[in-house]
Amino acid sequence: MPARPRELTPDRGARHLFGAKMRTHRERAGMSLDGLSDVVNVSRSHLSRIETAEAMPPPSLPPMLDAAFGTDGIFEELFVLAGKEIHDDEFRLRMGLEARARLIEEYIGQMVPGLVQTEDYARAQFETFNPRATREEIENLVTARMSRQVRLQADDAPDLSLILDEAALRRGFGGPEAMQAQLARLAELTFTRTTVIQVVPFELGGHALVGGSLTLLTLDNGTKVAYEEGISTGMLLEDPNTVAAHQRRYDRLSKCALSPSDSAAFIRSVMEALPT
């Protein structure tokens, strides 16, 4: 006798609703988990955990579900909401504004920004931050982080400007192989249609943004907001004078940082210095 399907709890949040909707449409289509696995190229066991909200769906799954079930973007919308739920309230506010941004400017001093992290780098960072986290918890965090990057591939992707301190390039997460892949991604993004990356080398000395990280978002209505982040907390800043002061600090640092082409060369030099 086959095991009775586990009862779902769609009222508990977007991730639970995503799983419940997936099961509803799958059963309505007369499709087993094995059958759906063949269509979307995700393992049966992973699909089962997604249905019961034990795992976050991978970014590639929602559009395939919408195509398979003819649901006109419902799963893509639920995926965005589910990705926000894994974070605290302040960061959820930031992510909601990030989704509206036409320009994202970010300075970070100690690690690679989440918007351009590779999966291995992100995974190592989460494991370092919380060594007691389960594998499932880590993978959910990685998936949520990767979901933030989906919009950067869209036709209407925002412009992204990053200033990275040399420490973010030198401080390894995940070992030399993971860092090689992460630095290679950064080198590719130093100057593209929508991205600019600049490096602040140690030789520049001190500057106004040392000691934290700063994100400036120019929204679709022209409004600017700022987000400051520490080790485990963040603060959204909306006062125009405060945001303008942070913008001036960012702009001054951008003028002192290496050009995109020099930054790419600098990043490659750090790659070459990594142990093989």
Automatic annotation (TrEMBL):
Domain HTH cro/C1-type: 22-57
InterPro entries cross-referenced by the UniProt entry: Cro/C1-type_HTH, DUF5753, Lambda_DNA-bd_dom_sf
Organism this protein belongs to: Streptomyces oryzae
SUPFAM superfamilies tied to this protein: lambda repressor-like DNA-binding domains (SSF47413)
Protein name: Helix-turn-helix domain-containing protein
Domain of life of the organism encoding this protein: Bacteria
Segments traversing the membrane: none
